[in-house]
Amino acid sequence: MATSLPLLPASRTEPDGSAVIRVLSYNIRSMRDDTTALARVIGACAPDLVLIQEAPRFFRWRKKLARLAAASGQVLLSGGATAAGPALLASLRATVERTEDVLLPLTPGLHRRGFATAVVRFGSARLGVLSCHLSLQREERQAQGGMLLDRLAALGVEHAVAGGDLNEHPTGRTFRRLAEGLQDCRATAPWGGEYTSTSSDPHQRIDALFATAGVEVLGCGVPLGQPGVTESDLRAATDHLPVLAALRVPAS
Fold first, then answer.
1. E strand or H helix at 77
2. ∠ Cα 86 92 98 (to 5°)
């Protein structure tokens, strides 16, 4: 699995006020695996924002998320049980304007889904953020893709990033709809590994990061072979591989 890759740009603020940030999307399987390995992977990626899926939702879920955030150099922004699984973490570099957890309509017999959202600033660069975990059921997933685009627009910011476990390949209808309205970061600037599932046998890309027009994608993919990110930790942490992107967000 391991490979040698150039490093993504480090986080920084540019002279023109734009911000280079690192965004990580990660399905953590309710922290049922090796949480020490999980924290090491997140920390080694040095993200400014972490878009979590399958966060703990039951007994002491908030404490578990807070411990993961602290162990990986982050703070908990929003989500978890209140968003039916998606959550947001951030580094202290982020200034938080507001957060909102959104529960999506429940289809009888299916798992409840939701969005964790926030508006944050990195200096004078302002960014909307959304973490999602879309349905396994095709029709419901398609409806949720439309809700995702509507919710991003409702954040009222010029620049935004969304990501998560789409439960669909890039050729699927919902994935394609999102890629038509947003930049598929991996397709825009391929970097690192492509496949995200499963961590022990990567053979499909069902996790992705998307950005609005105007956000420059500097690189995006699975951070294989990066300093501090080991194959053993990736296998032990959860059943998905993470997606890491470096983005340049213009000053607002």
1. strand 75-79
2. 55
Q: pLDDT by residue (tens digit) across 174-231?
A: 999 999 999 999 999 999 999 999 999 999 999 999 999 999 999 999 999 889 999 9
Length of the chain as a residue count:
252
Q: What is the mean pLDDT of residues 107-119?
A: 96
Question: Which pair of structure tokens corresponds to residue 180?
Answer: 């038509």
Residues 6 or more apart from 75 whose CB is under 8 A from it? 69, 89, 90, 91, 92
User: How buried is 4 (Cβ within 10 angstroms: 0-12 exposed, 13-18 middle, 19+ buried)?
Assistant: exposed
Other Cβ atoms within 10 Å of 195 Cβ, number: 17
Among candidate residues 91, 86, 45, the one with its CA nearest the CA of residue 246? 45
CB 160 within 8 A of CB 185: no
Residue found by looking up tokens 């053993």 in the block = 232
Q: Which two tokens stand for residue 58?
A: 């039951």
Cα–chain-centroid distance for residue 213? 18
CB-based contacts of 114: which residues, under 8 Å, 6+ apart?
Answer: 79, 82, 83, 84, 85, 86, 101, 102, 103, 104
The 8-class DSSP code of residue 176 comes to H
62/59 Cα distance (integer angstroms): 9
